[in-house]
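User: what does the whole thing look like in 3D?
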Amino acid sequence: MVSVENPLIMNIIRGLIGVVAVILFLSLNVLFLTWLERKVIARIHVRYGPNRAGPYGLLQPIADMIKLLTKEDIVPEKADKLVYNLAPMAAFLFALMPAAAVGIGSGLIAADIGVGVLYIAAVSSLSTLAILMAAWGSNNKYSLLGGMRTAAQSLSYEIPLVLSMIGIVAIVGSLSTQDIVAAQSQAWFGIIPKWFIFYQPLAFIVFFAAVVAEMGRIPFDLPESESELVAGFHTEYSGMKFAMFMFAEYIHFVVGSALVVTLFLGGWHLPIISPLVENLGWIKYIVQAGIFVAKMYVIIFTLMWVRGTLTRTKVDHVLSFGWKGLLPLALANVVITGVVLSI
Amino acid sequence: MMDSLVFFIISAVVIAGAVGVVMAERIFHAVLALALALLGVAAVFVTLGAEFLAVIQVLVYAGGVVVLFLFATMLTKSDLQLKRPPRGDELAPVSAVIFAIVALFYVASSGFASLGERASVIGSVGSVGGLIFNPQAYVIPFELVGLLLLAAMVGAIFLAKKEAAK
Amino acid sequence: MSVGEQYITIALFVIVGAIFPVLTIFVASLLRKPRTPEPQKYLTYECSVLPFGPAWVQHNVEYYMYALLFVIFDVETVFLYPWAMTYRSFGLFATVEVIIFIAVLALGLAYAWKKGALEWMRGWR
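Assistant: Here's the predicted 3D structure for the full assembly of 634 residues, as structure tokens:
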């Protein structure tokens, strides 16, 4: 055994536990989500959805995984091989990295860095790079068109996203997700939670719209508008490389929803219940994680509901909504917050 | 010891990226190599304790400027995207190497170890804010930055419009 | 030089995040599976017709315009975070300063709006 007192080795071990925990958490949620999404959408469409593999089709994700693992990996002849092969890996990496700074309980976080939310925004903006790599590397017209649209979209919604967090950062005085959630632990009269959705309603609307656009979900799902672009930037991908893109997309879904919960919905705090378990040792962590995941699934279900209800928006409408709608609103929110806080 | 090892690994990544920018045959590869170099620089900022700078480096450079460059490569003609035209001059790479060596010696002689302590003082979000918004410090430059950005935006739109009208 | 311990975790995320997909793709490539090489399979997909012309063509300037505006507003946004962290120490003065800063950039946004730089494929004709 190497000297365990060595702080560096301890840090590396702790970090590795964090990485493995985050990957496990994300994998389980993603597997469950692929099933849930198909089931929920099917219900909205008055269909049954997957119901063959296992009870209620619950084993469907496993079947899908085996299918993707054993599919042939086709690399188009004309593709730029280097970029084509790097893109799925970059997509996964840049989807995974933001999850490092999202916590599901007090202390249940992989890396509580000082620039928290800004780090999340910065690293997730790199996904654009992965998408452009896939788009250009495939040397396919649909891929390229889809990728460039996606890039334009995620650039346009990045600014409102980052701007809408400023109000909260000003109130809390910290960028760390742990501090932001801790600031929402109180409640008026012990019942009405002091969540930031009540302090920053405008920011919530802007952030929610922007985060949905960043995830590339309906009504902003230009990335894969299958009726016009075949499959967008991942048209040419098959097998595990395709799976990497799907994995990355669902990680964005999970992390984006978790971010909404962290910033606006009080994270792992719930009035009445949270104060009760405050001194219960490890039970506290389980309850906190449970509350967080439950809230996360409320957001996730809402987004699935939206997907089942709304239609896709046209590309020009999506972009002008971002620049002419959300950006001025986000700027106004910063000014209003600044004035209110300073007076 | 560990710190120097980390520094050397990151430097190797940055230099590999920079060399890639110069050597790559396809512009797209060159821009990706640039992204690698810029991300490596962000890692250097982190090791110096300047996390706010690191995040800005990722957000503005790797996430913004690189995408801008990628779009720019797609604005070029298709044969240019495939292979960059041969250049005759050998002066550029040689001068770049000389510059790099001189810069390295300068940094080494001024002792980059001392940079770490200074960066941790000026590198956090709070301390940057303390400098920008302190009436005695950088208020005017801050507003000038705003004007500069405005000028850049107006200029860019004007040029792009003229180009598109052609 | 101080390597914050939290950033060791971030570095591990980078390393594991880079290795994980390589590993899974490698494992998947071991689980082989029927392979029938056919030249048509490796053609670029274009709705089952033979590919027509190159995909790497010259694109419109709109995309570039959005990216340019993005970079400018990104820099602006980045300047607002230090304010959000420190407005307590400087109070109204810093807020007025920031409002002037935002006003200058709102002017830029208004210009871009009026000139049609925010329009998709329309403002340029």
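In plain terms: Chain C touches chain B through 51 residues (CB under 8 Å). The CA atoms of residues 26 and 32 of chain C lie 11 Å apart.
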